[in-house]
Amino acid sequence: MLSQALPGVCYTSIASHRLQTMNRPSALHRLIELIRNEWHQLTAITPSNRRWQMPFAAALASGLPLMVGAYFGHLDYGLISSLGGLVFLYQPHTPLSHRMTWLMVCGFGMSACYTLRAIAHFLPLTKAGMLGFIAVLVTMVCRFYRIGPPGSLFFVMAAAIAAYTPGTVDDIPLRVGLLTMGALLASLIAFFYSLYILRLQAPDAVAPLPPASFDFVVFDSIVIGAFVGLSLAVAQALQLDRPYWVPISCLAVIQGVSVRAVWNRQIHRVLGTAVGMLLAWGIIALPLSPWGIAVMVIVLAFIIETTVVRHYGFAVIFITPLTILLAEAPTLGHLPAAELLQSRFIDTVLGCLMGLIGGICLHNARFRDTLGRQLRKLTPSRLQP
Questions:
Q1: Mind giving me the DSSP string for 313-339?
Q2: Taking the mean position of all CA atoms in its chain, how far away is CA 175?
Q3: For residue 239, what are the contacts with CB-CB under 8 A and spacing of at least 6?
Q4: How far apart are CA 94 and CA 7, in angstroms?
Q5: What is the distance between the alpha carbons of residues 382 and 385, in angstroms, rounded to a whole number?
C-alpha cells in the first residue's frame, strides 16, 4: 500500500541505496588500500641533517674499547667497556658545558644500572622484578628530563646483559670499572667531537623543562617497566637460552608515541632482524680475529648511526649482527651459527609481541583511566608531578 501511495519516494530510496552500495569500496579494494598503506609506512624514509662526523665518533666510542681489549688479549674486557661507550649517543645539541655534564650524568646512570643487575645476578628469583624496577626508574628519569631517543633503552640493555654475564662476586668491581672506563672514553671522544662540530653549527639553547605530568612521567613508566619485567619472566618460563634480548626488544617497541608507531616499530624490528640474520650468518662465517671483530663493530656502528634516523627497519639489519658480535664475540666459532641465529630471532619476535601488547595497553583510553586512578591513590599527592 505504501509503495502504491508513494511510488516516487520508494523508487528514489531504492536508487539511492543502490548508488551507495555501488560507491562503497569492496573488501578486495579495502585490502589493497591497507597493503598499500602498510607498504608506505614500511618504506618511508625520514629526512635527516645528521653529519657523518657524529656516526663516526659514535662508532669509535663503541669500537676503541674492543681494540684496546684485542691489544691486551682480553676481548671480553673490551666488550664490557663498549657498553659504556653507548653513552655517547645521549649527547644533546647544547653548549659544550651542558652536554659534557649531561654525558657524565648518563655515564653514572648506566654504571649504576649495570651494578644493580650484576649484583642481582646472584639472586635468580629477583631477575625479572629487578629489571622491571630499573626500567620504571630509568624511564621516569628520562621522561622527567625529556631525554630523547634512545631514551632508557641502553640503560636497560646494560642492566639486562649484566644479569646474565657469568662470574663471581669478585668480578663485579672489575666489570663495573670496565664499563665506567668505557663511558669516560665516550665522554672524552664527545668532548673533541663537540669542539669540532660546534664550529660548524651553533648549539641549541638550554630550554627550561616543560611541566611534568603524572601520566607521562609516572603512569607510562610503570606500565613500560611492568611489561619489560613481564617479558623477561615469560622468556625465563620458556627457558630461552638468552632471555635478556626479549626485554630489550620489548622496550625498543613499546616506547612508540602511538599504537601506529608501536606497530611500525615491531614490524621494522622483526623484518629487519630476519634480513639481518643473513648478514650475521655471513659475518660469523668469516675467520674474524679479535682485531677483525673490533673493526667490524666500528663499521656496523657507523652504518647504524647513519641510517637509524632515516629508516629504523634498515638500521635493524645491521643492529642484528652488531648485537650478536657484542654479546657472543668470545664464543664465536664454539656455538653452531644456526642455533645462535634461531635463538636471536625467537627472542626478538617474542619481545616485539610483548612490546606490541604493552603499547596497545599504554595507548588504550579505558586502560589508562582505570589503572591511572588506582596509581594516583597509591602515590602521595606531593610526589605527583
A1: HHHHHHHHHHHHHHHHGGGTTTS-HHH
A2: 23
A3: none
A4: 75
A5: 8
CA 221 to chain CA centroid, Å, is: 15
Round to whole Å and give the CA distance between 239 and 95. Answer: 48
The closest of 283, 316, 300, 294 to 81, measured between CA atoms, is 294
Amino acid at 42: L
Domain ranges of the chain: 48-383
DSSP 102-125: HHHHHHHHHHHHHHHHHHHTT-GG
Res 289: pLDDT: 85
Q: What pLDDT score does 175 carry?
A: 92
Beta-carbon contacts of residue 40 (< 8 Å; ≥ 6 apart): none
Phi, psi for 36 (deg, rounded to 5): -65, -40
Give me Rg for the CA atoms of the chain: 25
Residue 240: DSSP 8-state: -
Residue whose grid cell is 668469516: 286
In the block, residue with C-alpha cell 674492543: 66
Alpha carbon distances (Å) from 152 to 101, 140, 144, 169, 207: 18, 9, 12, 27, 21
Residues of the chain by 3-state class (helix, strand, coil), percent to 5: 80, 0, 20
Question: Structure pTM?
Answer: 0.84
Q: What's the distance, CA 261 to chain centroid?
A: 13
CB 103, CB 190: distance < 8 Å: yes
Q: What is the mean pLDDT of the chain?
A: 84
Task: Residue 144: name the closest of 379, 384, 371, 370 by CA.
Answer: 384
pLDDT of residue 259: 78
- What 3-state DSSP class applies to 6? coil
The segments of the chain whose pLDDT lies below 50 read 1-9, 19, 383
